[in-house]
């Protein structure tokens, strides 16, 4: 059976990249610390602080992706069984969902450093939607992974 760690780590990192690139940079709905009073993104100093925080966030997601790629290479070198598409993509989606749930609970709810839509005054409905999307990614991804794992156990290496 292939190892799960590389695909999960890649999913965590890629989920973070999707959040950072789409929500922080393209849509500019929030930044890492955009709800912290000391760093309002509507001032130059606050925007600079938020961009630096976003940079550290992207560095962390890059490390997760790098670790996932390194573990993938290690598995290849050990001649481990390669995952099928369902196994791999299922765990990627699961990792992305775990990222959303953990980030949504910790950053949005517990710490309150930002919310999904800080540009609208942080409506709770967007934060809840983000968490629900994360749970759906975990559930759907895990079901897809289990399908792929079952195929591997039965000797079918199909997608």
Notes on the structure:
It is a single chain. The protein is mainly α and 159 residues long. The protein has one domain (5-153). The protein is built from four helices and no strands. The chain is elongated. The mean pLDDT is 93. InterPro entries: DUF2243_membrane. Keywords: Membrane, Transmembrane, Transmembrane helix. It holds the Pfam family DUF2243.
Topology (SSEs and partners):
Layout: H1 5-26, H2 44-77, H3 85-110, H4 124-153
Helix pairs in contact: 1-2, 1-3, 3-4
The major pleated sheet works out as: none
How many domain regions?
1
Q: Could you report the average pLDDT, rounded to the nearest whole number?
A: 93
Q: Helical amount among residues, as a percent range?
A: over 70%
Structural class per helix/strand content?
mainly alpha
- Written as H for each helix and E for each strand, in order along the chain, the element string is HHHH
Poorly predicted runs: none
How far apart the termini lie comes to: 15 Å
Short note summarizing the structure:
The chain crosses the membrane at residues 7-27, 56-76, 88-106, 126-145. This protein is an all-alpha fold.
Q: Which features would summarize this protein structure in a list?
A:
elongated; 159 residues; transmembrane; DUF2243_membrane; mainly alpha; membrane
């Amino acid at each position: 059976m292939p190892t799960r760690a590389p695909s999960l780590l890649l999913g965590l990192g890629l989920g973070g990249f999707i959040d950072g690139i789409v929500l922080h940079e393209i849509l500019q709905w929030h930044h890492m610390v955009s709800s912290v009073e000391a760093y309002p993104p509507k001032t130059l100093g606050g925007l600079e602080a938020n961009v630096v925080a976003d940079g550290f966030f992207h560095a962390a997601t890059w490390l997760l992706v790098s670790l996932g790629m390194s573990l993938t290479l290690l598995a290849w070198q050990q001649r481990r069984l390669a995952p099928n598409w369902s196994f791999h993509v299922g765990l990627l989606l699961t990792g992305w969902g775990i990222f959303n749930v953990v980030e949504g609970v910790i950053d949005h709810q517990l710490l309150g450093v930002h919310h999904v839509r800080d540009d609208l005054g942080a409506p709770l409905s967007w934060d809840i939607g983000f968490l629900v999307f994360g749970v759906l990614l975990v559930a759907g991804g895990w079901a897809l992974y289990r399908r792929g794992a079952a195929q591997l156990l039965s000797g079918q290496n199909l997608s």
